Amino acid sequence: MPRIRLTVAYIGTRYLGWQIQGRGATIQGVLEEKLSRICEEPVRVHGSGRTDSGVHALGQVAHFDAPDSKARIPWQKALNSMLPDDIAIINAREAEPGFHARFSVRSKRYAYTLWTEPDFTLPQRAPFVWPVRHLDLTAMDRAAAFLAGTHDFAAFQNAGTEVKGTVRTLEPIRREPGLHPCEWAFRFQADGFLKQMVRNLMGILVEVGRGGMSPEEARAVLESRDRRLAPATAPPQGLTLEEVIY
């Protein structure tokens, strides 16, 4: 029974996230439905991790075990012929021995995109950005430097998922131009992320950029390990899972 590794891109706007739920469309649910039709039997798809409702992906990774009788199917072509326009298989190949989409992960990289033009938001970019108007980018960079490293990120974890610990190692946060001159993309790479951790980190950086908090106060929130002291979670549409590293 060959294990097939998929790289999946999707626009998350009309989905309730990656993971199958009791109601509504999810990315995992759509993939499993199409694969079960191809394989003529139930197929379970395992992802590298969850993405929230409304969050996008350029490089989500998943795997499934195909029946031996279907081993020669061109999976990328077969799936893309059946999937809706907002989901695409970027790559499909047989996985190396021992590969698991979730448990083999070494790190992940997310990008969060901000729109900084105060007078309008480009309609074509609105589903993928958080409009925030003017920001003090220098102050945000200082706060980002405090957040990078190995820390207890409990102050940036939303309730809802049980984890063994809240210590993670976050690489230096990179601020780079986005796809449009009015955009900035902040890239976050870590050995693991807590529930909505990237959106909470982005929330505190924007609060610093708006002048509601100093970079030093952002560091104090991190050190407090108290979620109640951190600003509100950034909205989901600005977030994209860019790459899963194995």
Helix-strand layout with pairing:
Blueprint (H helix, E strand, L loop, with lengths): L2 E8 L16 H13 L6 E2 L8 E10 L9 H6 L6 E8 L12 E9 L14 E2 L5 H11 L1 E4 L14 E4 L3 E4 L5 E8 L6 H13 L5 H10 L14 E7 L1
Parallel strand pairs: 3-11, 5-6
Antiparallel strand pairs: 1-3, 1-4, 2-3, 5-10, 5-11, 7-8, 9-10
Word description of this protein:
With 246 residues, the protein is an alpha+beta fold. Helices cover 22% and strands 27% of the residues. It contains five helices and eleven strands; from the N terminus they run E-H-E-E-H-E-E-E-H-E-E-E-E-H-H-E. The strands form two sheets. Strands 1, 2, 3, 4, 5, 6, 9, 10 and 11 form a nine-stranded mixed beta sheet that branches. A two-stranded antiparallel sheet has the order 7-8. Helix 3 packs antiparallel against helix 4 and helix 3 runs parallel beside helix 5. It is globular, with a radius of gyration of 19 Å. The two termini are 22 Å apart. The mean pLDDT is 96.
Note the main attributes of this structure.
246 residues; alpha+beta; two-stranded antiparallel ribbon; 5 helices; globular
Terminus-to-terminus distance: 22 Å
Q: Note the total helix count.
A: 5
| Silhouette | globular
How many strands, what sense, and barrel or not for the largest sheet? 9 strands, mixed
Tell me roughly what share of residues is in helical segments. 10-25%
Could you spell the SSE succession in H and E letters?
EHEEHEEEHEEEEHHE
Low-confidence stretches: none
Average pLDDT level: 96
Which structural class is indicated by helix and strand composition? alpha+beta
> What is the rounded Rg?
19 Å
Number of β-strand runs: 11
Strand content: 25-35%
